């Protein structure tokens, strides 16, 4: 009997050896959001993703599609971060920069609203389609579990310890081991606990040879001159109004540890049947809005909500409301502790922001110091019954614009944004203005002033270095950080957009899989292979990718006539506009079709002054040519974008370069543009 048992044991060992030591995929028990209750403690996965932001969702989906066992852990109870947290008026910069699964997400949103792609949406719709990725990959989020420590062996994270976010108790802590970790939170808590270097606040301009970092007293979102900052006007001894700091204005470009303002991106509705009235919040203090009352009195001509808020309309009578001008939704100067605060302190800061924001809305609707026109306008809006139903119709996601920023293998700076320094290891692009919200409200020359707002753009899409997603190798070798990535304050202000985070998360997840397969550190993977994978398989599904032909693609674009290049406002680095001559002109886009079949063709039209009312196109598909006309009135541009894709139609295209789309200036009565053409293969 003993011999038989021994033989059986040896057979088991041999089977394990022959299996290549592959660890079985850990099955994570399903959990209901907000409960934090797990049926069993997991032990080991290949990829652990911390933070179910939009970036975390895309990273988890990608890693699973790459064949890896995955766990997605969310310290709160909300899925999707800011993308489903109220930021429906998507910050794009330039659609050319949004690739892969990130672009696919906005295509799915478009399908929901009956369009090709859409960048404005309701919070619940965003959440639905982020959940769709997880459902397709069979991923269950572990909610309400937050990291409290990380265990390392040398430079490698071996495991992390989680506590229940709702009821911390050492007896219920969970330990998670993985081969590679991704920190996809806005705060960088896993990164910090892993001992990775990071920055908080603003660098001095001199640190990285920049010009718009550090202290900046600019005109944007500024208080007008002449507003007294003191409780009793003209009497400094009476003390400062709420929200005004006694700090002195430091010289321009001075670094500090202060953080740009946070706020809520507010979803309201004007539909009475879907409305919850805005009432006085608990803790409401009208004294918090004395400075606002003085601002309103200073500018009596401003009597519209858009004078005090960026009031962006979303589908189905809803909004995405953001900060505007001198006093608005930004709670300036009240978040400095947040990045490094413990969980209890952060919760208090979040609650203070909620009380402030709800109080602001109530103030505009009810305070007698507000003009009646403004009060009446505000009272037409309320909280939507069908949004955030688990959290009292209020977003559970504070807009943490910036917290910790990793100091990694490479630091993205102003020079990268402006194209003065171009990296070769780009695994994503950014294109948004270098943007910082105000950081402090202080007294300057006896007047209340905001400081820290910066909005400097005018540059095209630029690559983001893979090295900015990984720590220094001496600090950690199995961690990627696509959200709190390595960038200066002002460069981060351009990069920190939700679509870009999703792009970088996909790249990071593929890199994680490559590191596991090659048994290398995340710093030592072959970035050229990562770049090739992103290009060849952008949706991580093996299907034929769409073909983009941009006007700057000299190999696939031919130009006839007097066309001029415009460097701002198009799709990608530039677009062409017809300069006008009696002979006319044309631009022909010739794709290299990899597989014959049906393709949907789209042409991109940027917004221009005095556009032609009708533009002539011709589509060649093999030996056949079809002539078409595009009416300017049919090109509808919505959201923060320079233009829109126009659907030309479905065409059967042969393999090779026997197909083309030509844009002609013949007979045009206004400006004709030629920018980009997209060929999207039909899914069979």
TrEMBL record:
List GO molecular-function terms, semicolon-separated. 4 iron, 4 sulfur cluster binding; metal ion binding; oxidoreductase activity
UniProt KW keywords: 4Fe-4S, Iron, Iron-sulfur, Metal-binding, Oxidoreductase
Does the UniProt entry include the keyword Oxidoreductase?
yes
Q: What is this protein called?
A: FAD-dependent oxidoreductase
One short Pfam name that applies is Golvesin_C
InterPro entries, per database record: CBD-like_Golvesin-Xly, FAD/NAD-bd_sf, HdrA-like
User: What sequence ranges are listed for the domain Golvesin/Xly CBD-like?
Assistant: 547-680
